Amino acid sequence: MMRGHNGDMIIELIVDVVPMALGIALSPFPVIPAIMLLLTPRPVPVSSAFVAGWLVGVGLATSAFVALASVLDRADDQPGWVAWVRVGIGLALVALGVRQWLTRHARTKTPAWMASLESATPGSAAKLALLLSVANPKILLLAGAAGVTIGSDEPGVSVAAVVVVVFTLLASVSVALPLASYLVAGERVLGPLRKARDWLQTNNSAVMAVVITVIGVLVLVKGVRGL
Prior knowledge:
mainly alpha, 79% helix
């Protein structure tokens, strides 16, 4: 779809991808390690590396889907595949959300990577953030939905880059917030952050189930309307 002004296109695309960005930002899963890393002996460098790794991971995942959508769009004069991809992603998100809701009370062991956070280094924190952002199906599906939305709209490279950057920043707000709070308030914020961590650990599955299902329905509805 061609528009007369890049600024208008950027704004419209950002509005389109905001729900997916909020879906990632509202995920408690990456926020828990972001808080736990502030309780390590080197909170600022380790947490900064985690935030940087998360930004890179989300940005790369989204960019990959933008590139894929752009290639497929050029190969098809009538890109009806876009609607079907949205339907598929929407159904997958809804299925994940329902499954997570049904298993929200199941007891699970503490992941090994979470138990090792106390001895995390900036390098290991960055690698962990990359892994959590590109290997988590929920995060990847949301980034994929955003990437398909951006790439299928035939933006120029500069427009796509701006929207991906804005999307990545919005999606990473919750991961960066604990570090930003610590930089502003120092150790005084650790008490409230511990309580937030405990709450998130207890309610992670329920919160994520609701968020994923709502975003999935939105993506699904948009896909169905495009058929």
